[in-house]
Design a protein that fits this description.
The complex is a heterodimer of chains A (about 120) and B (about 110). Chain A has about 120 residues and is mainly β. Chain A contains no helices and eleven strands. Chain A starts with a strand and ends with a strand. In chain B, the strands form two sheets. In chain B, strands 2, 4, 5, 9, 10 and 11 form a six-stranded mixed sheet that branches. A five-stranded antiparallel sheet of chain B has the order 1-3-8-7-6, with no helix packed on it. Chain B starts with a strand and ends with a strand. Classes of the chains: A mainly beta (about 120), B mainly beta (about 110).
């Protein structure tokens, strides 16, 4: 009964390759997110979709392209992988804000991407 | 100035001790505040939301000080299992969906 699940958990690949990470949530949330956590442990928002619509698009190289086929899925495709892309990528989901207050985000267990 | 700043620690405390730490935020209009916990090589997990009047959840107490723009977390009667990195989370702008995460405060509880 995993709430937010992402695959794969580990991804080791060579520079220049293209790879995808998948995320699915069964919480019934309308909003999903992708975060990057690098070696300095800062968790940075990359993208967010609300009901399949892009609502947050931070300054991220356009080699990164999110896709949301439905509100329960948010995938991340990365083209031409670079050494600096090595990090842990977390997917998260939340309910919509209520009364002007954000709702907590629930995280998947991360995809550890290593670029050789 | 960063949106969310935390003392990285580490705070090394013996079992049973009380440990407390703060987090400052830059946007006075922020409305939503959370503490998350992240264990080594794991995902962040919600510890507790922080309400205006302060709130408690067992051994954990969170406070919000709007005037000085900080939130705090206090852990009483520390357990070995409390060893983790505690992330301060704030909504930084009028975009209601975005949350900003601090870099975390590391707490190590020793036997």
């Amino acid at each position: 009964d995993t709430a937010v699940s992402q695959t794969p958990k580990y991804l080791v690949t060579q520079m220049g390759n293209d790879k995808s990470i998948k995320c699915e949530q069964n919480l019934g949330h309308d909003t999903m997110y992708w975060y990057k956590q690098d070696s300095k442990k800062f968790l940075k928002i990359m993208f967010s979709y609300n009901n399949k619509e892009l609502i947050i698009n931070e300054t991220v190289p356009n080699r990164f392209s999110p896709k949301s086929p439905d509100k329960a899925h948010l995938n991340l495709h990365i083209n031409s992988l670079e050494l600096g892309d090595s990090a842990v990528y977390f997917c998260a989901s939340s309910q919509d804000p209520a009364g002007g207050y954000n709702q907590p985000q629930h995280f998947g267990d991360g995809t550890r991407l290593s670029i050789l | 100035r960063k949106e969310v700043e935390q003392d990285p620690g580490p705070f090394n405390v013996p079992e049973g001790a009380t440990v407390a730490f703060n987090c400052t935020y830059s946007n006075s209009a922020s409305q939503s505040f959370f503490w998350y916990r992240q264990d080594c090589r794991k995902e962040p997990k919600l510890l507790m939301s922080v309400y205006s009047s302060g709130n408690e959840d067992g051994r954990f107490t969170a406070q919000l000080n709007r005037a000085s723009q900080y939130i705090s977390l206090l852990i009483r009667d520390s357990k070995l299992s409390d060893s983790a990195t505690y992330l301060c989370v704030v909504n930084p702008s009028s975009n209601d969906y975005k949350l900003s995460f601090g870099a975390g405060t590391t707490v190590t509880v020793r036997a």
